[in-house]
């Protein structure tokens, strides 16, 4: 292994190979397995049917998030029978198999990708998987983290390993410093806009460069979270002092001598000089603007100063896809993005449901009101984020502005619980997917940063955040 | 898991690019705790109107394609979430093979766990097969996993690449977990070594 310069991905991969077959297929050890209620019931049922147990319950963490209502009373009753069954199944499975568990009655409950880092389960150099594509979030710690299907959930539960073939290495470098009003969300959307939703297929992305270094850990999580929307297996950021400072002292982070030993290894977790990347994308931070999506694919990204494109602006299969998107979104080519009126605002999700996201939105909303006729919802990513926000008085800012202040969960990011758009409703959302029907049947989603969503809430239309903050364009 | 060896069947054309997992099986059908029964909701929001009636234009509602076993699809099929409900819904409908120029990673892996063969071919080959699929029930496409070929109704044949291990498992209908269980000793050894090297894990 020595001699050849290696990427960060190579290093984490090499450190977890249990067995390598002649054809290169590897059995990879999994350090942390996160579990939620939607993609796990069939896996636990599979264990029961085959008489298998959970190999490492101490490395398995379960939390209900997708289905749970975000309104009071959910501790005792969930109206929707199917949702209730799934949450009850998780409850039963977690207790029966003895895995770590945060039920809705626990203040630490929240979106699985927010709970993992918050509790110190996610650490640099680990392999982290979950039956959820946004597992990429944990890559912000320099952990190799990706989503898996339910069959693989069962495989990890039974063996604490995954059968994997290695992906290629891709580097996304963001040079320089972000202009005012531009955030981590704008970086990650801009990258997807540039490379397309298939641009990362078959690759693991390492994000690097000054603008990435400058981001807080929460910003880095936002960037890595959407690596999957760019098609990548995972997104990674090399750990640094910011990472270590974030991790230190968390409930499941190492302490004492173990902390020192961990730090020694973590400091080696970076791509070597001259390491090979199969694909490289470089973007100057100065060229990134506050962006929004206009269509039904996360690659449909434009600066807020732009106009709705026409299908003919594209080539190949994208022409028909764009035509379909525009029809679904009810938009005409040539319309200024800033003239698009909205009906709803959703602030939350594993992409942007952390405390810094709520602070950014609250900073815009302070002393302002939700525009007439709009519905606004803030859904903290975890019970602890919610508590922190309340301690800082952010809840009052949101409530005064006319927003609903909800309990933690995935909520209207995917609308599996009652939080959904109505047909035709248009939403400024801080979540990660603008697919048809994603936030509700026939609902229309525009993705953006928390500050941009807050700005849209105030004006009632997609808005350039720099107009409200006075930053120069 | 059922073996996949060869398949000759009707192919349905779905030229749209970036068909995502929310399209394949919308979130309201993820509330099941079973793997079966999702076929009726495959492509639900494209296939039915808001009253639950079939949309006649949608490809799988057309008489020629109701028995389709193969999909020929636009680029980046299966992008989006990790939901294995997507291949479960395809399988329950009767689809055993999807042909496209590229697939999203997690969907691609999920297919192999369920005996669905995702075949990646270059654009010109997919174009030929898409045209063939548009001929409806009269045009049957043959997929031969052993030979790694897809053959159009006119006999034109295209070779495809596949990971040898995945091919082996598909041909023999092997259960991954069973295979890995045979390596339990190696996992034990790894855990013992890691308890020393990275005790904080």
UniProtKB/TrEMBL annotation, chain A:
<dbReference type="Pfam" id="PF00330">
    <property type="entry name" value="Aconitase"/>
</dbReference>
<keyword id="KW-0408">Iron</keyword>
<comment type="function">
    <text>Catalyzes the isomerization between 2-isopropylmalate and 3-isopropylmalate, via the formation of 2-isopropylmaleate.</text>
</comment>
<keyword id="KW-0411">Iron-sulfur</keyword>
<comment type="subunit">
    <text>Heterodimer of LeuC and LeuD.</text>
</comment>
<feature type="domain" description="Aconitase/3-isopropylmalate dehydratase large subunit alpha/beta/alpha">
    <location>
        <begin position="10"/>
        <end position="460"/>
    </location>
</feature>
<dbReference type="GO" id="GO:0003861">
    <property type="term" value="F:3-isopropylmalate dehydratase activity"/>
</dbReference>
<dbReference type="InterPro" id="IPR050067">
    <property type="entry name" value="IPM_dehydratase_rel_enz"/>
</dbReference>
<feature type="binding site">
    <location>
        <position position="410"/>
    </location>
    <ligand>
        <name>[4Fe-4S] cluster</name>
    </ligand>
</feature>
<feature type="binding site">
    <location>
        <position position="350"/>
    </location>
    <ligand>
        <name>[4Fe-4S] cluster</name>
    </ligand>
</feature>
<dbReference type="InterPro" id="IPR001030">
    <property type="entry name" value="Acoase/IPM_deHydtase_lsu_aba"/>
</dbReference>
<dbReference type="InterPro" id="IPR004430">
    <property type="entry name" value="3-IsopropMal_deHydase_lsu"/>
</dbReference>
<keyword id="KW-0004">4Fe-4S</keyword>
<keyword id="KW-0028">Amino-acid biosynthesis</keyword>
<protein>
    <recommendedName>
        <fullName>3-isopropylmalate dehydratase large subunit</fullName>
        <ecNumber>4.2.1.33</ecNumber>
    </recommendedName>
</protein>
<keyword id="KW-0100">Branched-chain amino acid biosynthesis</keyword>
<dbReference type="InterPro" id="IPR018136">
    <property type="entry name" value="Aconitase_4Fe-4S_BS"/>
</dbReference>
<comment type="pathway">
    <text>Amino-acid biosynthesis; L-leucine biosynthesis; L-leucine from 3-methyl-2-oxobutanoate: step 2/4.</text>
</comment>
<dbReference type="InterPro" id="IPR015931">
    <property type="entry name" value="Acnase/IPM_dHydase_lsu_aba_1/3"/>
</dbReference>
<comment type="similarity">
    <text>Belongs to the aconitase/IPM isomerase family. LeuC type 1 subfamily.</text>
</comment>
<feature type="binding site">
    <location>
        <position position="413"/>
    </location>
    <ligand>
        <name>[4Fe-4S] cluster</name>
    </ligand>
</feature>
<dbReference type="InterPro" id="IPR033941">
    <property type="entry name" value="IPMI_cat"/>
</dbReference>
UniProtKB/TrEMBL annotation, chain B:
<feature type="domain" description="Aconitase A/isopropylmalate dehydratase small subunit swivel">
    <location>
        <begin position="1"/>
        <end position="123"/>
    </location>
</feature>
<dbReference type="InterPro" id="IPR015928">
    <property type="entry name" value="Aconitase/3IPM_dehydase_swvl"/>
</dbReference>
<dbReference type="Pfam" id="PF00694">
    <property type="entry name" value="Aconitase_C"/>
</dbReference>
<dbReference type="InterPro" id="IPR000573">
    <property type="entry name" value="AconitaseA/IPMdHydase_ssu_swvl"/>
</dbReference>
<comment type="subunit">
    <text>Heterodimer of LeuC and LeuD.</text>
</comment>
<keyword id="KW-0100">Branched-chain amino acid biosynthesis</keyword>
<comment type="similarity">
    <text>Belongs to the LeuD family. LeuD type 1 subfamily.</text>
</comment>
<keyword id="KW-0028">Amino-acid biosynthesis</keyword>
<comment type="pathway">
    <text>Amino-acid biosynthesis; L-leucine biosynthesis; L-leucine from 3-methyl-2-oxobutanoate: step 2/4.</text>
</comment>
<dbReference type="InterPro" id="IPR004431">
    <property type="entry name" value="3-IsopropMal_deHydase_ssu"/>
</dbReference>
<protein>
    <recommendedName>
        <fullName>3-isopropylmalate dehydratase small subunit</fullName>
        <ecNumber>4.2.1.33</ecNumber>
    </recommendedName>
</protein>
<dbReference type="InterPro" id="IPR033940">
    <property type="entry name" value="IPMI_Swivel"/>
</dbReference>
<dbReference type="GO" id="GO:0003861">
    <property type="term" value="F:3-isopropylmalate dehydratase activity"/>
</dbReference>
<comment type="function">
    <text>Catalyzes the isomerization between 2-isopropylmalate and 3-isopropylmalate, via the formation of 2-isopropylmaleate.</text>
</comment>
<keyword id="KW-0456">Lyase</keyword>
<keyword id="KW-0432">Leucine biosynthesis</keyword>
<dbReference type="InterPro" id="IPR050075">
    <property type="entry name" value="LeuD"/>
</dbReference>
